[in-house]
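Hi R.,

Here's the chain you asked about this morning:
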Amino acid sequence: MAEDESGWSLTESDPLVFTQLLQEIGVRGLQVDDLYSLDPETLESLQPIHALIFLFKWVAPTETSDAEKKEENDAASKKVGGQLVSLEESQDCGVYFANQVINNACATIATVNAVMNITPQEAANDAETIAHGAELDNLASFGAGMDAMTLGHILGQSELLRTTHNSFSNSSPFSISRDATSDKEKEDAYHFIAYVPKMGCVWELDGLKSGAVRHGSCEEGEGWVKKATEVIQERIGTYPPGSLMFNLLAIRSAAIPRLERLIASSDTPSSVIPQLQENLLQEQEKLHRMKLENGLRRSNSVGMILECLKQMSKEKVQGDAGKSRLEEAMEKARVIGNEKREKRMKGMDVD
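And the predicted structure, written out as tokens:
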């Protein structure tokens, strides 16, 4: 995997990655899902939603200091009606906010900022209990009362956060020099920020800003999502029409325990049981896919493939002196490719 000097690698904006990351750092009772639409029906299907994570293309200011970058980033919030508040005021409102002080860590910092602001909940069904886990509880306790920059450094020093974050990076046996990165790749920087409800307001938690941003009051309960999506849509509106530079994720209560409880309950109307069973099947398939895909992310098969090719290049084909199995395979591939090209030229269908 390609690591920055800080020791943190880039990760994908895949909800399956975020869900397993939460599980492995000790968080219970939460999962992450894509929000493909902001229509009421879609939002209702994912309730209760506790936080949103917004991924967008971020254009870094050129030739500016870190302080100047923060000033420009803070000013951007005012364009969408946000109010940057002081450390004391945000802490008085119970808002946890840590700066991103390490390159490539924005996905995990946004996730931790979001989860730290989700109130733990005990449930009669223990599988539905929401808990931060020992690691986040210890980090929150140790950093109590500290400023956002210090909290960012504390998170950056967490070995569990770093190793779990890096474990989802694409494995590669090759190391690519940062100097070799194209100008286009350097320009295409993407950033994660979180939106959470707290004390009757929607808060934007952007690790590159000097503080938390308050976006006004919202209705109690699930009404905060409507306010948050309005803010996000307003932000999207500042980009050129048709831009596809965004991704929105919802941190919600874990679905499987709730669905299993509802299906087993005698209080659940029989008319809705089939739909609940279908939803449960979809969630179980998603869980299976998460384990499979994240397992592949953590596997580096390139070395094995290279070794197989080396062995094939050494082994000789019986009865064909001088020809290796690799050369034989390449020759067969060329023959098959030529046959398919000839068929296409003749207008024949190819399986």
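DSSP finds 14 helices and seven strands in the chain.

Let me know if you need anything else.
M.
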